[in-house]
Amino acid sequence: MNLSSSLLSSISSVRTKISSTPKMTKTPSETDVGGGASVNRKNQFRGSLFKYGSKSIQVAFKTGDFRRQVIFIGGLTDGFLATEYLEPLSVALDNEKWSLVQFLLSSSYIGYGTSSLKQDAMELDQLISYLINKEDSEGVVLVGHSTGCQVIVHYMGTNAACSRAVRGAVLQAPVSDREYKATLPETAAMIDLASSMISEGRGMDLMPREADPGAPMTAYRYHSLCSYMGDDDMFSSDLSDDQLRMRLGHMSTTPCQVIFSMADEYVPEYVDKKALVERLCRALGGAEKVEIEWGNHSLSNRVKEAVQAMISFIKTEGPKGWDDPWS
């Protein structure tokens, strides 16, 4: 076969395979997942790649071809293949007749510093609209990792039309960016600078590189992530019960599961994790609490427990018929 015909054959392939980034590379092994299924850990997905919006970044990848979807929303610096549990989760979901959707936002990879929760919520709404109109979706469950949890909370507070399609939410590692950033020596001075820039009407201007060496960062987003009661400050241990209810209370009408890693490396040592997760679940209106002992931030060391918890919740809280969000 010549090069041209080989290329055409590849383009016409019905299935798309996305291999892992180096971050995900490991020796394949047999891993048990929820429901007793077994998956050969190749760190690969088969499914469909599609555009859900007009921006070049607005690309999504869906495994399975079902009318119920779990949408994964990663944290800062994340994109496709963000956590180790996604592959076994997709297999377990397939067994339950659910699709897994991973998607890129303007804030993905190094875009988080020039974006916002408002922008994330708008793009999430576009994705859900696509699934309703193009995939005839019967409903979605949102799974947030790290800062992705903030995106879910913000989105569900917007009352966007498509938010009615959300049948449940999983918050995995809902931890405070502010409390972690406060452990870094440069943070206090950078917060003062960001506040000054915002007061001068320069909130969308970029901060100095030392604010975040990994990504360009606007004064607004730095302030949002790092300042007390900034827009991203939803899960801090020093917020009062009233403040937590003000930030999270609207989630009480959405079935919610909180998966908290009891050895999360981004939670300062002084934080009482058990007390914090209890307060968060109460503020969320009685969310289901899952504490994973020795689990790290991304649960890469507790993949099986992560998948089992999510599948158990999704099977219980999944859509049992839902209203047309457009009516």
UniProtKB/TrEMBL annotation:
SUPFAM superfamilies reported for this sequence: alpha/beta-Hydrolases (SSF53474)
Chain spans, region Disordered: 18-39
Source taxon at top rank: Eukaryota
Pfam families: DUF1749
Signal peptide: none
Entry-linked Gene3D superfamilies: alpha/beta hydrolase
Name of the protein in question: Alpha/beta-Hydrolases superfamily protein
Organism: Thalictrum thalictroides
